[in-house]
Amino acid sequence: MDSLTHILKKVNRLEPIPMVIHKVLDLADDPESSLKDLMEVVERDPAITANLLRTVNSAHMGLPVKVDSVRQAVSMLGLQQVVEMVLSQNLSGNLKRSQKGYGLAKGDLWRQSLAVAMVARTLARQRDLMSLPAIYTAALLKDIGKVILHEFVADQLSAIQKLVAEKDMSFVEAEKEVLGMDHTTLGGIIAKQWHFSPHMIYMIENHHLLNPASRNDPATATLYLADMVAMMVDTGIGVDRLAYHVYQDVFNDFFPDKQQLKSLMITYKNFQREIQGFLEAA
């Protein structure tokens, strides 16, 4: 299909992922790596170190003293928060653009991706899941396919929305039917080209849980639920809002008490306010 070839050609136009990101993820996920190893990797990249220290020293963070090194940042904020800052700052470039085909203004996708990542991290901690940095990164990048596909969605939006309304398809199923490609599959292709781990590729490809087997993967289910929480709160953002299947068994597994879900939605709103401060500082 000509349009499919055209879509795939655009993958090379995306900003590449800095190699330091892979090193940070590998070390953060390796129980045998030391804190010193991780700090040395970050410190070897002057631009990343400078961006990190600028954010850490911003008025938003409100730290009582000036932070002059990665080591000091880790000691004051904790390793997990510093790793998340490094990941967030260096994965933002492609996601900050507008995706008009999806009805997303400049910055919308990035802000929502950050909030979803923070919710996913919260859920993963509650479930005692390992690989928190990997889950956080997958949440940031789950919609990377939209950065390319939005141009094609814009041209075929009426046909896609018709399938959603009349055939009870999810938006992602309708994308594939009309375009020959959906944003999750394209996201997996991009993640593979960027040399991410097989499990991260799997999470990105399956974050809407269309593959029944993916519902049994706790990390992928976590990503799905974090994304659904975002859609339930941000009901006015994006043309595909809530046009996805709700898997009640997955919700029941994570939220046996409905109050837990309501609490997480409030947490999401709090994260949004936190993100606004973070973006103003970045």
Secondary-structure arrangement, i.e. CATH architecture of the largest domain: Orthogonal Bundle
Q: In the residues, how many domains can be counted?
A: 2
**CATH fold name of the largest domain:** Hypothetical protein af1432
Mean pLDDT figure: 90
> How many H/I helical runs?
15
Gap between N and C termini: 41 Å
Binned, the helix content reads 55-70%
Q: Which regions have little confidence, pLDDT < 50, spanning 5+ residues?
A: none
**Helix-strand sequence:** HHHHHHHHHHHHHHH
Number of E-state strands: 0
Structural class: mainly alpha
Largest beta sheet, briefly? none
Strand content: under 5%
| Highest CATH level, the class of the largest domain | Mainly Alpha
Estimated radius of gyration? 19 Å
Shape: globular
CATH homologous superfamily of the largest domain - what is it?
Hypothetical protein af1432
Question: How is this structure best described in words?
Answer:
By secondary structure, this protein is mainly alpha-helical. It has 2 domains: 2-16 and 95-281, Hypothetical protein af1432, CATH 1.10.3210.10; 18-90, no CATH class. 66% of the residues lie in helices and 0% in strands. The protein is built from 15 helices and no strands. Helix 5 (70-77) crosses helix 6 and helix 7 packs across helix 15. The radius of gyration is 19 Å and the shape is globular. 41% of the residues are buried. The mean pLDDT is 90.
